[in-house]
Amino acid sequence: MHSNGFFLKDVAGFLGGYYAFIAIMNGVASLILWRRKNQLGWAFVWAAVAGVMLILASLALSGSATLVPSLPLAARKLVNALSGPVLYTLGTTALLTVLFVFRKFFVKPMVAWTVLNALLILMGLSMADENFASIVMKPDNVPIVGLVFMLAFFTWVATSQAVVNDERIKQGLPPMEKLNDEKVLVWPDLVYTELICMVAVSAFLLVWALVLQAPLEEPASSVKTPNPSKAPWYFLGLQEMLVYFDPWYAGVVLPSMVVFGLMAMPYLDFNKKGNGYYSIEERKFSYLVYQFGFFELWITLIILGTFLRGPNWNFFGPFEYWTPYKVEVLNNVDLPQFFWVNLLDRPLPRAPQGAGTLVQVGTILLRESPGLILLGAYLVLLPPLLAVTVFRQFFAKMGFVRYMIMANLMLLMLSLPLKMILRWTLNLKYIVSIPEFSLNF
Amino acid sequence: MAEKKKMSVAEILAAARAKSDGGAAAPSASEPQASPERQAVARVEESSHVEAEARPKAKPAAKPAAATAAGGARLSVADILAAARAKKAEGGDGAVVEAAAKPKPAAADKPKPAAAAKPKPAAAASAPKTGVQRDTGSILAAARGGAKPGPVSKAEAPDVTAKLQAAAAKPKAAPVEKGAVARAAPPMPARPAKPAAKKDGEEDRRGFLEIAMGSFMAMGFTALSVTGGLFTLGLARFMFPNVLAEPPSRFKVGFREGFPAGKVETKFVPQYGVWVVNADFQGQQQIYALKTVCTHLGCTPNWLEAEQKFKCPCHGSGFYKDGINFEGPAPRPLERYAIRISDDGQLEIDKSKAFQEELGQWADPDSYVTV
């Protein structure tokens, strides 16, 4: 479904205000830089951007559908054709890696401001696409758009302080937080701040509730599942995990392990540095593991589940129409099938009709032996192996129990991306598949 | 003691002010004098601070001035802190007196200087003179004197206020009297004598109570368990309702001719949650009833006629027409319900019986009807 005039007229008003907002934002930035007088070049740049945004705003508000600025159709088609779960995951991983490696560059205020402007303009241009706008402007999804921007902002704040601190520590200076440790009182300083925040957030929520209508649907029916059927946005990471695992694992074990792991973190951490101030260099391992789990395995999965999963839980490009008739070949098989049928070219071991329970269990174990051996090696053999190689120092510092807990938590966390990769590359459904007892991994 | 709640700075100051304003005769609400324990503690503290008085005494010029400065009228927190800071900055005792005295010149005329002695500046005088301006926390700590740093709990408050008062009220209070008060702490009440050992067979009032209580307890617990048991039975009764509003588990869906080969009949889904399929399964043309519950997480899949598959909208599981899972996370095939040809020739489905492929139950002739 391609953009049409009716839709553009609806969205044009919003886009006009949106571009005007970006113009004001850049105008203010330009004014502040002008007053400071040390970055006059940038002040001119942002003033120019503000001017361009004003032109875009007037184009959007011109009343003519053809003048509303939008991405060229060819570009949208290219994005749709390229996007898929594999590219999305690899792409976000690459993007986050680049941001991390070149963090010293990206935390510079002017660079960060440029990135923010680019993102906002890209979103404005995409918004002129009906399919994109219908997903992004759904009342359910608006908070997630806000989440993406807020998360980027807070990560930028923390990372920029960490970069400054790392630089100071390298020079032998104390971190910034140590310079200004004037204590303030809870009452009145903190409580007043909280009161003001409370009033502001209440006002914001009130406006939100008035402006964005509740996404009411038809009366519920136990036999009618909406298509696509989505969890609340904060659980969409879980729902995405469930695509790759049995419910008991992705719905029970992994979430419990997430909570348990978060609670265990302070007890596993033996690094005394970085206490009370931001630093990346001093806590590289903790930082990377946490950010991988949070950004890669939680946030990107929420974004994937919210914006890119359509009817029948198929993957849709950002500018693609959500048709329930999209055909995707997703056939997959279990590991025993691979091993016995494809590799050894013989049928799956099957207990003879009317066999006793012991024989049946034995046959199942024989059938699943490749998966069980793999799983055992992964969870039992790998931790000691890592202890004598990669994590030698960790093992020495943490001791047996703490090390084993950390290693197993990490391996369980890594089981998700590993399983995703196996599904994409080998069409592997389950490594261990015992449907007789609802035990699948 | 009962209230172990931490006191805020404001409360400590208020308590100190109330003490100095009202004097010993008018106890303030924040420091209930009625509590004997507290009084005792306060007295002990006072006595231990008798020698501490020597310090302020060394600066006789400072003392009365500080006292008169605060005389009668209250000093605000800001004033106290300003005085303390000024003192720190100049490093002289005369300065603090001046600073404290300046805001209230009229107060100097007031006739009752000692009774309302302001403790803070006096106590601040004993703080170390660093000459460096410090943060609020350490100034407050210094103002509190030698007391323990950090927040003060209500239980400790009498100590602090008494200490401060003792340090400030020195010019008025006669040291002899003070010592007498300290020495006159009331003795601990004597421990009551142990009741004599009961003789065998002797019933006293306490014994009667024990027997009575025992039986009351027994009665109470018996009643409780009986009530609990009846309640549980009542709850269990809910499992067997008189009227069942759900559709019957056995129902007729029509004659075989209504289900042409290769067709998935979806019209029974809303009411009964079942697809009736006429398809080839392992070389045999069968009519069977598939349960509309995804074996992954229980959503209701949709039948996609164009693609000839059942597709679940929740996590993308896909099933062939015969119910075998082939894509997505569903670990096992859809389940079948029992189906048979009833006496009138119609197909009858029985939802009370389900057949699972992975357990080899689809071979059961109850799970299908041959065409």
Question: How is this structure best described in words?
Answer:
- The complex is a heterodimer of chains A (441) and B (371).
- Chain A is mainly alpha-helical.
- Chain A has three domains: 1-69; 73-215 and 228-313, no CATH class; 335-440, no CATH class.
- Chain A is built from 18 helices and two strands.
- In chain A, helix 12 packs antiparallel against helix 18 (400-426).
- The longest helix of chain A is centred in the first third of the chain and has 32 residues, at 5-36.
- The model of chain A has no long low-confidence stretch (mean pLDDT 90).
- Chain B is α+β, with helices and mostly antiparallel strands.
- Chain B has two domains: 6-183, no CATH class; 250-370, 3-layer Sandwich (Rieske Iron-sulfur Protein).
- In chain B, strands 3, 4, 5, 6, 11, 12 and 13 form a seven-stranded antiparallel β-sheet that branches.
- In chain B, strand 8 and strand 9 (318-319) form a beta hairpin.
- Chain A binds chain B through residues 182-183, 185, 187, 221-229, 239, 242-247, 251, 311-314, 324-325, 327, 329-332, 353, 429-430, 433, 435-436, 438, 440, and chain B through 8-10, 135-137, 269-270, 273, 292, 296-297, 299-302, 304, 306-307, 311-316, 318, 326-329, 331-332, 358-360.
Low-pLDDT segments of chain B: 23-72, 92-131, 172-182
Question: Given the helix and strand composition of chain A, which structural class is it?
Answer: mainly alpha
Q: Give the SSE order of chain A as H and E letters.
A: HHHHHHHHHHHHHHHHHHEE
Q: How would the global form of chain A be characterised?
A: globular
Mean pLDDT of chain B: 70
E-strand count of chain B: 13
Which quaternary structure do these chains form? heterodimer
Helix content of chain A: 55-70%
Helix % of chain B is 25-40%
Describe the largest sheet of chain A.
Answer: 2 strands, antiparallel
Q: How many DSSP E strands of chain A?
A: 2
Strand content of chain A: under 5%
